[in-house]
Amino acid sequence: MRAKVIVPLLGILSLIYIFLLPNPPSPVILKIRIFRLLLAIYTGVTLSVFGLFLQGALNNPLVEPYTLGIASGAALGVSIGILVGSALSINILAFLGAVTAATLVFFLARLSGRLLREGLILAGIIISFFASGVVFLLLVLNGRELHEIIYLLMGYLGRVPTRSSYLHLSLSSLIAGVSLFYIFFTTKALDIIATGYESAHSLGINVNRLLTRGFIIISLNVGLLVTQVGVIGFVGLIVPHLARLLVGDHHRPAFYASMFIGIGFILIADLLSRSLTTIELPVGVITSIFGAPFFIYLMIRR
Amino acid sequence: MRYLVLLTLLSCVGERQKSEVKRVVSLAPSLTEMVFFLGAQNRLVGVTTFCDYPPEAKKITKIGDFSNPNLERIVALKPDLVLAALPEQRRIVAELSKMGISVFTSHPKTIDAIIDEMDSLAHLFGLPFPEDSLKKLIYPLPNFDRKPKVYIELAADPIITVGHPSYLNDLIIKSGGINIFASVEVEFPVVSWEEVVRADPDLILIFHNQRCEERLGWKELTAVKNGMVFSGLNEDVFLRPGPRIFIALSELRRIIEGCVPRL
Amino acid sequence: MIEVDGLTFHYDHSVVLDRLTFKIQSSEFVGIIGPNGAGKSTLLRVLGGLLKPQAGRVLIDGKELSSYPLGELARLVSFIPQETHFSLNFKVWDVVLQGRYPFLGFFKIETKKDIEAVQEALGKTRIDHLADKSILNLSSGERQLVVIARAIAQTSRILLLDEPTTFLDIHHQMEIMSLLKQLNDEGKTIVMVIHDLNLAALFTTRLILIDRGRIVAQGSPEEVISEDQIERVYQLKVTRIKHPARRLPQILLG
Fold it and tell me: Which sequence ranges form a coiled-coil region, renumbered to this chain (chain C) (predicted)?
């Protein structure tokens, strides 16, 4: 029932996105804009659903690929890959960076002895800052300009599309699609995990296996994502909450809602990033400006 | 800001100081080139690691690089005057001023401004300056009925170009062209590829070494179809607002002259 | 049906369970009692497959516990923790329906059979009237009933409960114990860690008294709850009497 409202709304938003921006577009311009739209959709859907999964599997409303340091780890992989040179290695290194960051975060969280809830966030922030710092260091020492680094670390949907960009996006979307398929079928399990890990185990859910698989899948996708758009924060955090506000706490409807709201969220953020000032801001700036206070609000509310 | 203007004015007006400017440290390659151009290189006691023209400049003591000049090394050289570039070196300029060291700041927004800065420096050094000869290099300006639309790309990822406040924008104008981003009031704005495609420049100057041929819409650009894409230009000549800008000016004029018939 | 042989479990360097050996037959109602830190909860968790012992074997229906795939185990054994914290806003019906998870196919869609199991479970626990209410709005006693209903919907033959009545008032305590007795009569094997000796005596058919990781005594309540044993294990003076109506041993403090 709500889908009837959301889908056309998104359709209108997409059309605005493509056409309302100044001047009627030529076929080439259209190709460029559609690419950006598809990239935005890919970004919004994956980040939101992964955020939903992580929040459910870790029984923690504050987690998402960004706050867990996964995205920054991928950025580190990307920057090492830039220095190494080949396009393939950038993707592989991004994946490795993401997985390494995720593992480190868990390791640190356990080590800290705190309640896993706070421990994860703390460890995620630490790894995030550390990885970002190293990215800066690596790239600056190698003569890269600050602006390049900033746009990598703050996320940018407007990278110049080349012929291979479409291919890259298609492959990534394919992988993302399969991953989303997998996550969709874990939604019932996520509902149960919300009642406790022991209950979940008793009902036949191998939580460790779920977490491990989920992490690998998310790391792979976040790696591919960061390679194309850089690090965009808070989308995965906010959208699941908005989705749950809209359709309730069950993960299956929240899955659908997250996808659509994720698309809307990122499109609005991108539109804002291009219209607020004369220059194009990195979209991550917008999401952070809205995300950080929301994050604080969530932390306080708990 | 007012401090700096005051200092600069004082430095310029104080003719009595001209013989007292014996030890000069330059924090930017463009300024180093200016000093050499004026013939005052024997007063130059410190330069940056990027100051490589003329070759003699490389032999002078280094005080760091452009983004991070070393304050201690500068002070250790006991300079009478430090030459710095704004806005990048704003902080070190403030530090030096606090220490009572005279600073000459450079931030030319036009080619004429570059000449004016060299003139001021010449005054400070008590040296003659061929202002009129240089002005003759610029004027009269070429005037084409159909001014070619020029696009300068300084970086590819994200795309950085030049806007109205940049001297490069003036360079384009004085070469007879129009900068497609002349209306943007930011010196080095980040723009989207889409905007470039829509503007459809007649002439493209590339100042980085990323490949562009793969871009969507590249082949359809007028400049590309007419072969008016130049990526091998000497960056040091174009991107330093110093005396060699006149070389850049003549080169760009030559290119645009070649471009105009195809419009 | 449940065979434990030489079970040893330790956390780092402290031994929690020390070579435990015992058997639990089908349809027994077993209470595991003992002082705090004796290892009761750990034992229950090992039986439920939540913890892996360092030594010893646990056999369920003659097959090693560790060789059961998790899904199959879930259809056989239910584990009910002491307290369940619900953070998400689910309806009672939804929570009980979760008990059917081990039976859902690949696409995880519920069938009529599942719906019926839930209805039956709600009926048995007599919380039909709560079906549509949010789990967040229930009292702890009602919540516990919901969790038990979920375990009933799981149609497992073995129920493991970790102190299910500890946080409840006496009304709910009796309600749950009676429910468990009823389930036991229907054929379910119940293994329960319980603190309240008197409650244990009234309802269980067999008691296992554990102290410092070892079985001190096992048998009927009559056999296990002796003043001697209780005083030794709990380090406390007690008086044993016979329940006037039920003729079962009860412990009075002092």
Answer: none
- Residue-wise pLDDT for B196-210, tens only, equals 999 999 999 999 988
CB pairs under 8 A between A and B: 67
Residue B93 lies in a domain: yes
Q: How far apart are CA A138 and CA A84, in angstroms?
A: 12
Question: Averaged over A231-242, what is the pLDDT?
Answer: 92
- Could you tell me if B169 and B123 lie in one domain? no
Q: Are strands B24-26 and C249-253 parallel, antiparallel or unpaired?
A: unpaired
B63 and B111 in a common domain: yes
SS3 per-residue string spanning chain C: CEEEEEEEEEECCEEEEEEEEEEECCCCEEEEECCCCCCHHHHHHHHCCCCCCCEEEEEECCEEHHHCCHHHHHHHEEEECCCCCCCCCCEHHHHHHHCCHHHCCCCCCCCHHHHHHHHHHHHHCCCHHHCCCEHHHCCHHHHHHHHHHHHHHCCCCEEEEECCCCCCCHHHHHHHHHHHHHHHHCCCEEEEECCCHHHHHHHCCEEEEEECCEEEEEECHHHHCCHHHHHHHHCCCEEEEECCCCCCEEEEEC
Domain span at residue B195 reads 149-262
Q: Count contacts between A and C (CB, < 8 Å).
A: 72
- B50-80 pLDDT, tens digit each: 999 999 999 999 998 888 888 999 999 999 9
Check CB contact of B214 with chain A, cutoff 8 Å: yes
Q: Does C74 touch chain A (CB under 8 A)?
A: yes
What CATH number did the domain enclosing B217 receive? 3.40.50.1980
Name chain A contacts of B222, Cβ cutoff 8 Å: none
Task: Give the helix ranges, DSSP H, for chain A.
Answer: 3-15, 27-57, 70-84, 87-112, 116-141, 146-154, 163-184, 187-193, 197-202, 207-229, 235-247, 251-275, 283-301
Residues B174 and B246 in one domain: yes
pTM: 0.85
Q: Determine the Cα–Cα distance for residues A173 and A35; give it in Å rounded to an integer.
A: 13
Q: Report which listed range, A89-98, B201-210, C243-252, is most confident.
A: B201-210
Residues B96 and B187 grouped into a single domain: no
- Which domain covers residue A113, as residue numbers? 2-301
Type of residue at C209:
L
> What average pLDDT does chain C have?
91
What percent of chain A lies above the pLDDT cut of 90? 40
Domain total for chain B?
A: 2
Domain CATH for A203 = 1.10.3470.10
Domain ends where: B135, B169, B184? B135
* Complex ipTM value: 0.90
Domains and CATH numbers, chain C: 2-253 (3.40.50.300)
Q: Is the minimum CB–CB distance between A53 and chain B shorter than 8 Å?
A: no
pLDDT tens digit sequence for C22-64 = 999 999 999 999 988 778 999 999 999 999 999 999 999 989 9
Report the sign of the C-alpha dihedral through residues A206, A208, A209, A213, in that order: positive
C168-193 tens-digit pLDDT: 888 888 989 999 999 999 999 999 99
Q: Tokens 């002070």, residue? A: B75
* C90–A contact, CB cutoff 8 A: yes
List CB contacts of C117: < 8 A, sequence separation 6 or more.
C99, C100, C153, C155
CB contact C89 to A (< 8 Å) = yes
Residue spans of chain B under pLDDT 70 = 1-19
Token output for C37 = 């830190």
Number of domains in chain A: 1
Least confident of A19-23, A122-126, B15-19, B217-221: B15-19
What's the start-to-end Cα distance of chain B, in Å? 45
Question: What pLDDT score was predicted for residue A1?
Answer: 46
Q: Do B194 and A33 touch (CB under 8 A)?
A: yes
